Write the structure tokens for this entry.
Amino acid sequence: MAMRAALRCLSVNFSPRLPQLSSAAQVSATRLLCRSGAPRTLSTTSDQCTALKFTKKHEWVLVESGIGTVGISNYAQEALGDVVYCGLPEVGQKLEQLEEFGALESVKAASELYSPLTGEVTAINTELAENPGLVNKSCYADGWLIKMTIEKPEELDKLMDQPAYDKFIKSLEE
Amino acid sequence: MLSHLRGTFCVLSAGVQRAWSSSSCLFMDPSSPGLVLQSQSTDVFQNLALEDWIDAHVDLQQRSILLLWRNRPAVVIGRHQNPWAECSLPAMRSAQVPVARRRSGGGTVYHDLGNLNLTFFASKKAYDRRRNLKVVTDALRRVRPQLDVQATDRLDILLNGQYKISGTASRLSRKSSYHHCTLLHSADRSAIATLLRPSCPGIRSNATPSVPSPVANLTDHAPSLQWEELLEAVVQQYSSEFGLTSASRCVDPADEVLFPGIGSMEAELCSWEWTFGKTPKFRVETQLELRDEQPVARCSAELQLEVKNGLVETCRVEVPAAWLPERLSASLAQALLGERFCPHRAAAALSTLLRCESGPLHGRLRNLCDVLVAAMG
């Protein structure tokens, strides 16, 4: 399909007109997520925060003390449009990597959510029930979706880091 | 009337209808980068299962598919909607009209044999709802140039700028997408008014709401437009817009050979767990009017319940103590916990309690039970 025609498509056509969150902004979002109380510097030891990891389905995972927080990337929230409903799993639900665990309904479509890792859901973001737009407004911080245990840490190693994800997005736009 | 409808609505192409011995013949035919299918079934669950099956099994990276289908009367709610809020389940039970929950988003619609459903399957890259709706509006303008039909920003199609003749919903899954829409040719509009209203009062929910609109049938404004003519126009327009040359084909969604596994997809769509159990958590807060006949007396009570996964999670029945002792109203509330939010289940759970309680309060207790059951839709 000609590039122009591809760019005309809605939804999963990820419009290059709107700027994405810059890498610097994403790193500070990481710091925001890691903050548990008083501000502290970003540590790289394994029991502290690690950097954001991304899936090909445009979800991010951030690991802190063995728990992964999951959300969708800026690229994904732009493509989805205004989120009107978040269908999330129950706490305690066991998920396999790539298993469908819920759906986001936006003005553009109902889109399935796929688990980035194998583990058990420990928390869901209950703010999203009243305020689903948080997924658009603050996709790396207040718009987080679920928290889960990490049964297979090796799965995390296979996910993309920031630079790899940026490259991946660029390749989709071509 | 619907006298122009026929038993099957497969539009046969010039030439022989091929028998499809397996889905690979149907979907992997290299000579057809696109495909138009017409479902032989008028069962809403079979047709929704067919959409699921195509979405899950067909490689849509290189091809697009248009599926045309229609259903015997049914109400179809969106993925994240509340069936008790969207339709009158008691009225539907009387009319024997089922409710189905689809996997795409959006609002509630009434289907009958006068409504054409169109599903446009494509890869995520090729997902373009406006282009799909243009197929519909161009087709209509070609067969009836005087018709004023326009797609809106919400992707409804309006007739004369006023009446909704089509609504849209869609789904993005692992690798592919589908966009489906309705098209009112000659549906029974009186049924819409009767069926699409809440089952019970006092529902408080953050489920996705419907946006009610005045509707019209195409035949109200173009009475000579035949069903087959409409189908033919849409098929031709789709073929020319997407550059296809293949003729449309009839498929039977009940055919497990052609669509292996479709039976269990259909079973899931029919299940209570999917239809009702997937309802987002909601509350019911309503006043109950109680009465006694001997002597004649009245009283108001409050009901508050929370329903999660279609089951009563919490329940409070506040009845003035002078009317009924608190222990009785509390034990009624207790009896409903964990039951499906359903008048039949409620009646069964409460009848056990009623049997245990004889004496002068029996009449008031029975009245409270009846009123509670009626509040459950």
